[in-house]
Structure formats: C-alpha cells, structure tokens
Design goal:
- This protein has 2 domains: 180 residues, 3-Layer(bba) Sandwich (FAD/NAD(P)-binding domain); 152 residues, D-Amino Acid Oxidase, Chain A, domain 2 (2-Layer Sandwich).
- The strands form 4 sheets. An 8-stranded mixed beta sheet has the order 6-7-5-15-16-17-14-18, sandwiched between helices.
- The longest helix is centred in the N-terminal third of the chain and has 16 residues.
- By secondary structure, the protein is α/β, with parallel strands linked by helices.
- Helix 1 runs parallel beside helix 6, helix 1 crosses helix 9 and helix 2 crosses helix 9.
- It has 10 helices and 20 strands.
- The termini are far apart.
- The structure holds flavin-adenine dinucleotide.
C-alpha cells in the first residue's frame, strides 16, 4: 500500500498552497489527491480572483496581511507568475451606517498594521472615478494593495513548485472512504489504491462536508451558487479601475482583459450543488451595473461567456482551519465563504505550522477558526461578504 506523511484531499488553490508550504518547510512526503482529470475544475477555476485586506474581523485581516504581500512576491518566491495586479478595492458607502462600518474597519485594519487603506470623501471618489454615478455616495474606503490575481496561475504555480520539491499529485482519483485504526493510522480509500498516513488534510472545497463524513464529522460547509458576467471589450470606463463595490446593492465589478467582470450575490440564491448559469441573472445584474455606472447601459454582453461556480459557505462566513479534536491527525482547510483565493497563501502557511509544530503566528488566535467553535456557539461575525 502507498504511504505518505501527509495526504491532502483536493487539488484546488487551497490544497496546492498547503502542498507548497509543507514541501518548503521540509515535509517531502506529501500526496495530493484530486478527483478531476485536471486541477481547477472546482471553485478555483470559477473565481473572480479578487484579493483584499479590507475586512472587519482581525483574523480575516491578518490572513490577508500574510497573503497579499505573499502575492506581491509570488513569482520571486514560488518561481511562477500569480499575475497580481494591485489596482485596489474601492467600497462606496451610500448610508451613514456604511460609513460607520468602514470607519470602524479602517481603525481595526490600521491597528493590525495595514498601512495602505484609507477613508475617502465623496469628492475624492468623484475625482478618482468621475464615471460613477455618485449623487448618493457619502464616502468610501480604498486600499491600494488590494487587487486581483489569476487563480489558475497561482494554483498551478504552487503545485508545480511543490512537485519539484517532492510532492506527488494523483489526478483522476477520488477519495471514497477513510478509516482510522486504534494507533491513529488512516487508511484513505481511493479509486486508484489505498493510502496509509498519519495526517489527512481536507481541502475539498464545496465538497468538504462529504469528506468529513468519512471520519464521522458533521462539517457545516454548504455549497452556494455564485454567478459572474464578463463583458465584451469596452473602453468607456478606465481599465486602471479598482474593484468597485456598491454597498447599496452589493454589486461589484473589476476590469478583466479588454472588458469588465460583473458580480452580484443574489440574495434569493439557495444552497445546493447548482453550477448552471441562470440567463435571467444578466438582466438583474445589468440593472445594478447601469445604476452605478451610467456608461454600463451600453455594456456589450455575450451570455454564452457567463458562468456559475460554488462558494463554500459556513454559518459565520469564516473558514474552518486546523485539527479536529475528536479525530487526531485529521485537519480542515474549508469553508472559505468566497475568500479562498485571497486567503490561500495564509491557509497554506497556517496548516503547515499546525501540522508540523502545533502552533502558528500568522494570526493572533487561530483557535477562533476551529471546527469546535460551532459546538461552543462561538461564531465569528463578518459583515463584508462578497
Ligand atoms: C463565482 C465565484 C467568484 C469568486 N470570487 C472570489 C474572489 O474574488 N476572491 C476569492 O478569494 N475567492 C473567490 N471565490 C472563492 C474561491 O474560488 C474559493 O474559496 C476557492 O477557490 C476554494 O479553493 P479550494 O481549493 O478550497 O476549492 P476547489 O477549488 O473547489 O478545490 C477543491 C477540489 O477538491 C476536489 N475534490 C472534491 N471531492 C473530492 C474527492 N472525494 N476526492 C478527490 N478530490 C476531491 C475537487 O475536484 C476540487 O478540485 C469565488 C468563487 C466563485 C464560485
């Protein structure tokens, strides 16, 4: 039977980052098991690629404070491009409550060491992007080191470098069961052959709850469809634009290629493994788009290029990281609730620290992300979910 020091289930951006961080910390016997014939067919290949440090909870801010500088040096450190573009995230506040929220977050971000975020007046926003409809804008916040990466390149870069440093990737191989004996050895059953290991990492994205069930864990991670609409080439809005978030509707967009990529989280969406694109979504999102950017009234869209993917939602919209007390040797890297691309570098580092040393200093208190928080009723609260 095949053996490995660490078995990672799922070869998306999260599993790839964990494999990279483990191999670069000296753990060479790492096996990544991916059920698809190529990587990126889960949520990673469907992502918008946004990265930001403008969060409200300390743990999310600190995960970004590791991840974004990592992205800035990705090519130098990993040896492959990440296509990090620090064009910023601009939040537009249209209510006093939005302003208070942004101010509060800004103070917390500053205290934790983020130096590139600032609050903006409505006039500053108008000067920055006169093409926006701003009559109802009261102010906002902007962080110049927020921006975008190419999730495919990041995932492939992490994995290529991990493979060069001793990791193994099995593609087209599904994990079908996991057994754990009295001595703490796992037998991971796959469609290829069984694997024996002392450490299993669940990095199965929106399918993580199914993996957790194999070891008797009820993991609160639910799939939730998200749809993105790319435009055809369009030049009546600047391509140097940041990600713009209209807090009045949740509509957000960023430049992509010669056009723009539009996103809006439909509040009527319900949980489930739905990955078909719903054509009626285009009319809804274009209404929000033209409302904030009058020029988008003429934005050319080819519905055939729009797509849908799955967020992996937890009850408090924070990821679940670390060991499971009831199943020693079983680790979770799940439930990113729409932030798995931006937080994949810090997740790789945190999981590696926890597996190899039992502690981490990437965040002040990693226990707030523990699986056991749900049983303890200690949920986190993050309101800025995109
Ligand atoms: C429309 C959309 C927009 C998004 N925008 C952003 C964004 O702007 N910024 C951001 O940070 N995040 C964004 N996200 C979220 C982000 O894409 C995810 O959080 C991230 O990709 C999760 O990575 P992952 O590796 O955990 O999961 P995945 O990429 O889903 O990888 C999990 C892998 O596990 C494999 N797997 C599952 N079950 C098994 C099994 N039994 N055996 C073997 N393999 C298995 C799957 O095949 C899959 O490849 C977005 C998501 C969507 C859908």
């Amino acid at each position: 039977m095949q053996t490995a020091e660490v078995v990672i289930i799922g070869g998306g951006i999260v599993g790839s980052s964990i494999a990279w961080h483990l191999t670069h910390a000296g753990c060479k016997s790492v096996l990544v098991i991916e059920r698809e014939s190529s990587q990126g067919k889960g949520s990673t290949g469907k992502s918008m690629g946004g990265v930001r440090a403008q969060f409200s909870t300390p743990v999310n801010i600190q995960m970004s404070l590791y991840s974004i500088p990592f992205y800035a040096r990705f090519e130098e450190v990993v040896g492959h491009p990440a296509d990090y573009r620090p064009q910023g995230y601009l939040f537009l506040a249209t209510k006093d409550s939005h302003l208070a929220y942004l101010r509060d977050n800004f103070e917390r971000q500053k205290k934790l060491g983020l130096t590139t975020a600032r609050l903006l007046s409505a006039d500053e926003i108008r000067a920055m992007l006169p093409q926006l409809r701003s009559d109802d804008v009261l102010g906002g916040s902007f962080c110049s080191t927020d921006g975008f990466v190419d999730p495919y390149s990041v995932m492939n870069g992490f994995m290529a470098s991990a493979l060069e440093h001793g990791a193994t990737l099995w593609k087209k191989t599904e994990v079908t069961a996991i057994a754990r004996d009295q001595q703490g050895t796992f037998r991971v059953e796959t469609t290829r052959e069984p694997v024996s290991t002392h450490t299993v990492v669940n990095a199965a994205g929106a399918w993580a709850a199914q993996i957790a069930k194999f070891v008797g864990i009820d993991l609160p991670v639910e799939p939730l469809r998200r749809m993105l609409v790319p435009s055809e080439p369009f030049s009546d809005f600047p391509h140097s634009s940041p990600m713009v978030i209209d807090m009045s509707t949740g509509f957000h967009f960023r430049p992509e290629g010669r056009g723009f990529l539009l996103a809006w989280n439909d509040p009527e969406e319900t949980a489930g493994y739905k990955t078909d694109f719903e054509p009626s979504f285009i009319e809804k999102i274009l209404m929000h788009a033209a409302d904030r950017v009058p020029a988008f009234e003429n934005l050319p869209i080819n519905p055939k290029r729009a797509w849908a993917g799955l967020y992996e939602m937890t009850p408090d919209h924070h990821c679940i990281l670390g060991p499971v007390a009831a199943v020693p040797g079983f680790f979770l890297a799940n439930g990113f609730s729409g932030h798995g691309v931006m937080h994949s570098p810090s997740t790789g580092k945190i999981l590696t620290d926890l597996i190899l040393q039992g502690k981490t200093n990437v965040v002040d208190d990693v226990s707030v992300l523990a699986f056991e928080r749900f049983a303890r009723g200690e949920l986190l609260h993050e309101t800025a979910v995109l």
